[in-house]
Amino acid sequence: TDHYAVFGNPVAHSQSPRIHALFARQSGQDMRYEAILAPLDGFEQSVRGFITAGGCGANVTVPFKEAAFRLATQLTTRAKAAGAVNTLIFAEDAIVGDNTDGAGLVRDMQTNLGFSIIGKRVLLLGAGGAARGVVLPLLHEEPGSLVIANRSAGKAMKLVDSFTDDAHGILSCSEFSTLAGQSFDLVINATSAGLANAELPLPDGIFAPGCLAYEMLYGRETAFMRRAALAGARVADGLGMLVEQAAEAFYVWRGVRPDTVPVLRELRGA
Ligand code: ATR
């Protein structure tokens, strides 16, 4: 039996053990996956203990994704771009850091939601870790434009600057207030405002007809989701992204791509 785990703090609420158990059963993989609560100042020690005990790989969640980035001795291109690691692979003489979050977001949109990003006007709200993690995978889908807007405009500007080489002129930044008069086919909320039940000061009209409004949080209806629904947008939460980033990690570890449809259905309680 191969051992995997998710490291977080807190971690008791994590859906990952359930998701990976469903993937393993479905694909007949002989593996075990547990949640490990790492002390806030003891992430590295906790991971090293798991490696010593024979762990094959791990997921990393809040607040350790940057610590995992530093711990890795090798990084994939998408982990480098994200500046964070959510998936670790323990090899003979290396700790490989990967990031499957952005791939999970893109796959959820394309496969589960049937939404194609190519040529679309895309607005990404937020400039923290969650936003950074999805920029490169979004650019790879060749949107018509990608605007990053953030409460602190300087942070959005920095984020845009760090991707100019990959962006071929389609990436720009904006403040919330200067979004007035613009509209988008896809609006992604990568801020953590929903966790605090906070409202984003978004101007009316950013949701173009037929727009998809994507909230990266899950498990609650946020003010962003209510606002978007009122504006006539199609609304999605981040549960599909959660399942798809897990599927991508499972694929990296096991070389098998699980069927996410029944897993997502089970998580939604349908
Ligand atoms: P995460 O890893 O979830 O991205 P983070 O790196 O702390 O967490 O980033 C949080 C993001 O949510 C930031 O873009 C933050 O905006 P600021 O950079 O201006 O702080 C955004 N955010 C959080 N609460 C917000 C609120 N009430 N209104 C607008 N933006 C908010």
TrEMBL record:
The keyword Aminoacyl-tRNA synthetase does not apply. SUPFAM superfamilies: Aminoacid dehydrogenase-like, N-terminal domain, NAD(P)-binding Rossmann-fold domains. The active site is at residue 65. GO terms for biological process: amino acid biosynthetic process; aromatic amino acid family biosynthetic process; chorismate biosynthetic process; shikimate metabolic process. Gene3D superfamilies: Leucine Dehydrogenase, chain A, domain 1, NAD(P)-binding Rossmann-like Domain. Shikimate binds at residues 14-16, 61, 86, 101, 218, 245. Keywords: Amino-acid biosynthesis, Aromatic amino acid biosynthesis, NADP, Oxidoreductase. GO terms for cellular component: cytosol. It is an enzyme of class 1 (oxidoreductase). Residues 6-88 form the Shikimate dehydrogenase substrate binding N-terminal domain. Its EC number is 1.1.1.25. Residues 238-268 form the SDH C-terminal domain. It comes from the Bacteria. It catalyses: shikimate + NADP(+) = 3-dehydroshikimate + NADPH + H(+). One of its GO terms (molecular function) is NADP binding. NADP(+) binds at residues 126-130, 216, 238. The keyword Zinc does not apply. Involved in the biosynthesis of the chorismate, which leads to the biosynthesis of aromatic amino acids. Catalyzes the reversible NADPH linked reduction of 3-dehydroshikimate (DHSA) to yield shikimate (SA). This is Shikimate dehydrogenase (NADP(+)). It comes from Georgfuchsia toluolica.
